[in-house]
Amino acid sequence: MTEQQPVPLTKTAPVPVSAAELRASDADRDGIADILREALAEGRLDPEEHAERIDAVYRAKTVGELEPLVRDLPAVARGGRAAAPAPGSGGLGRQGPRALPASDNLTAVFGGAVRKGRWRVRRTTNAFALFGGVEIDLTEALFEHREIVIKVCAIFGGVEIKVPENVTVSGDGAGIFGGFDIKTYEAPDPEAPAIEVRGFAFFGGAEVKRKRGKRLKNLRSY
Prior knowledge:
Helix content: 10-25%
Number of strands: 12
Radius of gyration: 22 Å
Strand order of the largest sheet: 1-4-7-11-9
Strand content: 25-35%
Largest sheet: 5 strands, parallel
Structural class: alpha/beta
Order of helices and strands: HHHEEEEEEEEEEEE
């Protein structure tokens, strides 16, 4: 009687995932949010449309959910800004495999959002206020990076940023029928955290306040 030979197992090839099905990263969401902020500043979107799309950006789970939000807008190709999503690129606003660090998102729509106390500051923080207010208190925060960016969008609302005395502060933004009050300050310690505030206020306000007597003790924790 002949011995029966075992039947070899067939390996199943993995099913390829389309670019639209890929999970969206924080960097992908930030790139789309930058395009939307630029479109609002140029008058391509009104405040209500912008608010609806920004809300959808930070609820999106996949790249495919992000792409329709900027499909009718031109690409933003200036340095430091996000580029429009390329079909089949597997990512938005990125070139190559490099992924940016995750960001924090604070949104206040007809309400308020506060971040204060002992919290870890990521490289990027997005603050969006629509008929509401956002408060970011960095006086007791832990800085994981020496250079951080806070991106502000205030529409009929306000964003207030509180910083300790011994950090560097700079700003790049505009107030459109509103105020963008970011006073530059250079800390004596070259290793001190550097906070850059970018964005705009439309019928709203953005302000940085230095808290007298408050000093960071963890300047070199990053």
